[in-house]
Structures are given as C-alpha cells and as structure tokens.
C-alpha cells in the first residue's frame, strides 16, 4: 500500500522529512515494513514468510562463498537512503564493501554493488515496479529480483538516461535451477524455496 502525505504540496524536502520522521517513530511499534518512494510511503503489512527469509539466507551464503572477504551480502539494518531523491529503501540483501558499512546513519545507495529483493507475496509490485524505478534513480548499479511465487527472476544492469529518468538498460531473466550472475559473481539458484 502506498500513502502520499497531504504535506507533499509544501515541497519534496518537507514532505520527505515528515515521512522519514513517521517511519522512525513507528518502526518498532507497527507490524510490517515501511519504505519511502517517489509516490510516498510503502507499507508492506505482512511479515516475511519462511520461504522469503530462507531465500535471503541462501543467497547471502552462496554469494559470500564466491565473493572476496572484503565484500559482504548484508541482510540487516540500516536502510539505504538518498534524501535529495526523497527515497528510503531496505533491500532484502545488499552487496556492499565491508568498509562502506562503517559510520552512522543509512547507507549511501551509491556504495552498494548490488541490491537483491525477494518478491513479497503480499506486494509484488513494490519489487517489480517501484523498486525497479527507484534503484537506478539512486545509483544502485545492479538489481536482482527473485520471485518465489513463480520460481523465476531477473537481473537488471547498465543504468542509462531516459526521458523518465535513469533506468536499467539490460535485463537478464532466469528460472530457478539456473546459475545467475549478480555483479561479478555467479551462484546457483538450485533448491531455492517457492511459496506454497
């Protein structure tokens, strides 16, 4: 569900700060996950199901087996934030250099090597539509989507300018069971769980 505040008329900076303050004030008290997009707040009310979390764990472990030690597949906090673009997101898996995780506050999205999302059963458009628009806009060079609803996915790369803003130029689709390349690393998708 996306909610755009009435304060949006007062300018993007004011509206964004209001949404950011709201997200911080409710993040430990309301169920689900809040993110900020160009359209406003996105609230995924469902807690991730086991297949979603298990997929994130498989991907993290498989990537970390093939990546150099100074690169991690991070599945925790904090968010990635681009305040000038008024976007606050929380990828399921963030491929990032260990050194870029140091410091305080949200991660700079331009330090991510890749963002990986496992499609939510309750809100698939968030991953397939709005994040596909937001991630190139905030400079994330590789975006991989794994969809446990269908056992398929896609990897998006090569950000380029378009009349509607930056977009990914290259899309490589895959089905579970095939190897998939995310940035410089290839992993198997064999045995990833599906939603029942």
Automatic annotation (TrEMBL):
Signal sequence region: none
Q: Where is the Putative restriction endonuclease domain?
A: 32-159
Report keywords, A-Z: Endonuclease, Hydrolase, Nuclease
Q: Tell me which Pfam families the record gives.
A: Uma2 (PF05685)
Q: Name one GO molecular function term.
A: endonuclease activity
Q: Which SUPFAM superfamilies does the entry link to?
A: Restriction endonuclease-like
The keyword Hydrolase appears for this protein: yes
Q: Which domain of life is it from?
A: Bacteria
Mind telling me what this protein is named?
Answer: Uma2 family endonuclease
Q: Can you name the source organism?
A: Streptomyces camelliae
Classification of source organism: Bacteria, Bacillati, Actinomycetota, Actinomycetes, Kitasatosporales
């Amino acid at each position: 569900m996306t909610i755009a505040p009435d304060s949006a008329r007062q300018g993007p900076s004011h509206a964004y700060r209001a949404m950011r303050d709201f997200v911080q004030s409710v993040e430990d008290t309301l169920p689900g996950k809040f993110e900020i997009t160009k359209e406003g707040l996105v609230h995924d009310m469902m807690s991730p199901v086991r297949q979603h979390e298990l997929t994130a764990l498989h991907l993290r472990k498989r990537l970390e087996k093939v990546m150099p030690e100074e690169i991690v597949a991070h599945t925790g906090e904090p968010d990635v934030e681009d305040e000038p673009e008024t976007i606050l997101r929380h990828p399921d898996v963030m491929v990032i250099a260990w050194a870029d995780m140091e410091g305080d506050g949200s991660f700079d999205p331009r330090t991510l090597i890749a963002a990986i999302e496992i499609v939510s059963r309750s809100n698939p458009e968030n991953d397939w539509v709005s994040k596909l628009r937001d991630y190139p806009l905030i400079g994330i060079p590789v975006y991989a989507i794994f969809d446990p609803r269908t056992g398929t996915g896609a990897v998006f790369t090569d950000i380029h300018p378009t009349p509607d803003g930056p977009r990914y130029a290259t899309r490589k689709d895959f089905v579970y069971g095939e190897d998939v390349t995310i940035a410089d690393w290839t992993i198997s998708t064999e045995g990833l769980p599906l939603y029942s």
